[in-house]
Amino acid sequence: MKSTTLLVFIAFVVVLVSSPPQIESRVVVESTKPPCTTIDLTGCWPELFDKTKPSAQCCGTLKAQQPCYCDFIKNPTLRKFATSPEAHLALGFCGIPFPTC
């Protein structure tokens, strides 16, 4: 009886020792979305206020901020700029659809 108990104990220890350690894994999702706290209008002056076709630089800047448009619209400080007729016109000239948030 003692030898059976000893063999079971040894088998348990062997299984315990041979088991790989548990590894904690985490998935970190990094956002590719730019920070949405300010509207960047680099290259957009004076076209925005002249209501003329924006430069390629301006269109590039606006396209880069496209993931932020809903955040801009939801922000009480930025809403008046993001939803202005000038913003609609500039987005249209640049081929960027106005967001439906």
TrEMBL record:
Alphabetical keyword list: Lipid-binding, Signal, Transport
UniProt domain Bifunctional inhibitor/plant lipid transfer protein/seed storage helical: residue ranges: 52-101
Signal sequence residues: 1-25
A GO term, aspect molecular function: lipid binding
Matching Pfam families: Tryp_alpha_amyl
Species in which this protein is naturally found: Brassica campestris (Field mustard)
Keyword Chloroplast: no
UniProt cross-references to SUPFAM superfamilies, sorted A to Z: Bifunctional inhibitor/lipid-transfer protein/seed storage 2S albumin (SSF47699)
Protein name per Swiss-Prot or TrEMBL: Bifunctional inhibitor/plant lipid transfer protein/seed storage helical domain-containing protein
Keyword rRNA processing part of the UniProt annotation: no
GO BP annotations listed: lipid transport
Top-level lineage group: Eukaryota
Recorded coiled-coil stretches: none
Gene3D superfamilies, per the entry: Plant lipid-transfer and hydrophobic proteins
